[in-house]
Amino acid sequence: MSGFSFxxxxxxxxxLFLILSASVVSCADLGVPIPPDDISNFTGTVIKxxxxxxxxxxxxxxxxASIFFPENLTSSFRSDGLRxxxxxxxxxxxxxxxxxxxxxxxxxxxxxx
Length: 113
Known about the structure:
Blueprint: H1 10-29, E1 37-48, E2 54-62, E3 65-70, E4 83-90, E5 101-110
Parallel strand pairs: 3-5
Antiparallel strand pairs: 1-2, 1-4, 2-3, 4-5
């Protein structure tokens, strides 16, 4: 019986790698989050914006961003003008422009003014 035979080997592994790579690239184009970036040991100032919106104005720029929106900022750090040291994880979608870089805090402490 003639026909297609399926053989495992280096060529099949290469084909599978190429298919998976193409799917990862196409996911990035669909707005699927890219792996988050960690920022560590930054200093900045908590600033109250309108309503209940608080931002951290960092003393350091990271990939062009110096204003961060801390998604999980607790009430004990919601004080206008408060100086803080912080670390966190940026969750940025590709091809999306943000007014403020979304940040999930992993560490924050008050520093002396």
